Amino acid sequence: MPELPEVEVTRLSFASAIAGGRILQARLGKPLRWPLGLDAQALVGRTVQGVRRRGKYLLIDLDQGLLLLHLGMSGSLSFGPNQRPPGPHDHFDMLTTLGLLRLHDPRRFGAVVYADDQQAPNAVKLLGHLGVEPLEQGFDVDVFFQGLKKRQAPIKQVLLAGELVVGVGNIYASEALFLAGIRPTMRAAKISKPRALRLHQAIREVLARAVAQGGSSLRDFSNAQGQNGYFQLEAMVYDRAGQPCRVCGHPIKRIVQGQRSTFFCAACQKP
Ligand SMILES: [Zn+2]
């Protein structure tokens, strides 16, 4: 599943290339998670002004309105001048004067939704509840600590809920908690200020590193097919159950929290 770094790298892969492109055609494939909310033909003639990101949504600003795009579980985007005819899993094509933007999404949990502006009810419904961006200035350590203090749930689940900070998904929550030395089952409210500081720093660090790493593989990523869009960190704990901890050698443990796998080192991560 694409997480925030993958979405940000996707954005970087085509944002400047598509800016200024006028839409020549728009084609929908099979239904996605939510309908476009507008006749695709109505997009023709509009111009792409830029691409922003909010959480795991890409916001494609048009000279009139915007498109909110989500990659769901299995979606990937490609953008370029020489694309093949659409395949069975290509469910949104937008041809511009600068190239074709294509959403490839076998499981169809992704979506492209049109909104008149970011204050439109359908945009607010998707974006309105999102917490602060972890890589921006607004992710304030004191506000983060105060938010933790109010939450009795295990810290891993508090991170995944996305209310305190947006876009820390399953992989990066496990990785950040390892880096901060905090047991994922610990109640958020019990985390001391110094440990909250370390966690705040760790979240920024794992996400920024993943964006940087993905950015360096951008060439593969943006070249037409869009299949190999995901990349993985050299994970410290994620998906390493039973393997030795890279720091202390103890076997990594796997538990299930809220139906999601959590990985941690019982020696390095204190309750
Ligand atoms: Zn360890």
Structure description:
With 271 residues, the protein is α+β, with helices and mostly antiparallel strands. 29% of the residues lie in helices and 21% in strands. The chain is built from 7 helices and 10 strands. It has helices at 4-18, 121-127, 141-149, 155-161, 170-180, 193-216, 218-222; strands at 23-28, 48-54, 57-62, 66-70, 76-80, 90-96, 99-104, 111-115, 253-257, 260-264. Strands 1-6-7-5 form a 4-stranded antiparallel beta sheet, covered by helices on one side. Helix 1 (4-18) packs across helix 6, helix 3 packs across helix 6 (193-216) and helix 5 (170-180) packs across helix 6 (193-216). The protein is elongated, with a radius of gyration of 20 Å. The protein starts with a helix and ends in a 7-residue tail after the last strand. The model is unreliable at 219-231 (pLDDT under 50). Zinc ion is lined by residues 245, 247-248, 250, 265, 267-268.
Give a brief outline of the structure:
This protein has 271 residues and is α+β, with helices and mostly antiparallel strands. It contains seven helices and ten strands.
- Strand order of the biggest β-sheet: 1-6-7-5
**How big is the Rg?**
20 Å
**Shape from CA axes?**
elongated
Which spans have pLDDT < 50 for at least 5 consecutive residues? 219-231
Structural class: alpha+beta
Give the bound compounds: zinc ion
Strand and helix layout:
Elements: H1 4-18, E1 23-28, E2 48-54, E3 57-62, E4 66-70, E5 76-80, E6 90-96, E7 99-104, E8 111-115, H2 121-127, H3 141-149, H4 155-161, H5 170-180, H6 193-216, H7 218-222, E9 253-257, E10 260-264
Antiparallel strand pairs: 1-6, 2-3, 3-4, 4-8, 5-7, 6-7, 9-10
This protein binds zinc ion.
